[in-house]
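MODEL INPUT / OUTPUT PAIR
PAIR INDEX: 1
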Amino acid sequence: MRVQTTVIIIVAFLLSHVAGYIIYTLDRRDALEMTEAIDIAERAAGISRLTRDLPSSWQGEIVQFSDSRAFRVWTSSLPAVEAHDISDDEGDILAYLRSQVPRIADHEMRVSLVDSISDIRRLPPFGTSSRSGAAVIAGDPFNDGPGLAISIRHSDIEWVNFIGAINTPKSLLPELLAINLLSAAVGISLVAFWLVGRVTRPLAEFADTAEGLGRDLSREPMPVQGPREVAVATEALNGMQRRLLRLIQSRTDLLAAISHDLRTPLTQLRLRLELMPVSADRRKVLQTIDDMDSTIGTFLAYARAAHESELASRIDLGALVSSICDDLADCGAPVSCDCSAGLIVRCKRLAIKRAITNLVDNALKYGGQAEVSVAPCSAGVVVRIQDHGPGIPDAEIDMVLKPFYRGKADPGRARQPGTGLGLSIAQAILEDHGCELRLTNPVQGGLRAEIIMPLAAAAPRA
């Protein structure tokens, strides 16, 4: 958004300035050309007054000495300007001539703006007699370019003709225009990039906070700042965070209360059974009570999995996983371990230990044995847990991570004791740490569970 907004501002600036430059150039050219045309008409009016006011014997010399390469003056029996429908600019010039030479009637003056002076008929070459009617000399530099032609009647048989070149003004130097636009664009882009970044920074923080809530719902609320729209969205996000925290806390408190209320009568039942004579029925009832107590504890662990009050600390992940494998091996579990030491991460030690233990127990329960390894990877650290069981069908991999799902494709898995919360608890803990849990079926068989823990993201708040 920052770059796009800056580009939009720069493009709009360039387009507006280019359009303004074109309009200014055209208007400036028209204004300068009209000014030069009026100057030519004023000079022609002055010469016309002289030839009328001074003795007729002087007329030829006045015309001859007024003739030049830049301003041609000559007399002829026919006007050099033919009668035609005049334009608005020609009408303005003709009105100016009337004001300068009021004694001449309207039909005795003719004005024409021409694109090329060579188009004027009866134009004698420069340097010949003023009364000559010779053809135009080819290559005369005066014959090229736009100009203003004027014919004024002085007698029944004589017209005085004038023609002056109009110099088309040159456009502004393209180099200067390019330098101006480039310097302005660079300056505006720097200012716009800074301003847009300042405006959109709260929006970026809002996105980061929203993303972080998925990993740590207990993080500090986002400060309300920035534009009004972002501030309103921030207040809504903070309100949603508070409601979610209250909801989860209410759920946890409810399960804790249920656990307490259920465990109290279960404890009473166990005490009473202990006082009864030993029998097969007594053992079965005690086993059922133990199963119920374990199930209640599992429910409570799942409710608290992603929101432990444990403080995060720096630990050696390889050493932690090795200790888990050693404890299981001491109990006779077929576990092998290949863990690299020195992979320091910041996490909640007991929570991560519970998640990894659940995954290793899962591999032992359904795969018969577990091969555990910890190694660095491009994303941080990867913990791999491989078993040699039947695996999980690809269609059920996402389903087994849901609470209470036992795996319908494998009847043996459904018959195993448990509540179906082991993987769900592990996933909740790992998501709280910003980790990723991947379940895959390798080609050689079995199920592989991988924990991808980014070193930079493996630091959840307490």
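PAIR INDEX: 2
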Amino acid sequence: MSDLICVAVIAGAFGVRGEVRLKSFTADPVAIGEYAPLVTEDGSRSFDLALASQLSNGLLVRLSGVTTKEEADALKGVKLYVPRDRLPGLPDDEYYHADLIGLEVLDTGGNVLGRIKAVLNHGAGDILEVQVPGASDTVLLPFTLDAVPTIDLDQGRVIADPPLGLF
């Protein structure tokens, strides 16, 4: 588990005064300012931010030290992180996506099904993208209590009871 957790990505410049469109990955997107300062993955830059407004595809923010459209354009695609210890604790049945990625997936009989490659959400609930061992294929496993009854972060694995024929 990494010490830094990605909480946002800069989607591009907005206007001519250095504002940027920001896609927030926090539960409450507007609360992204509470996690500041945000840092780049390599830690070379740190930004405080001020929320200017909400957009249909993200947030409009001002980043400290970014004052021109050219500076904002140069940051397009940059992911922003916070140290793990700055994130709030979660209830027992909730997990940070970063903690799930890379976990081994076993079926209820102990057979290896793969590793979690990504956690996706297209509006109807979370889905685990599982990389099948020895193949380039992935399987989309519903992240429900029925399909994934056990998550053991300490052991680095999840126990799955996938729908018949999924794997």
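PAIR 2 NOTE: The mean pLDDT is 91.
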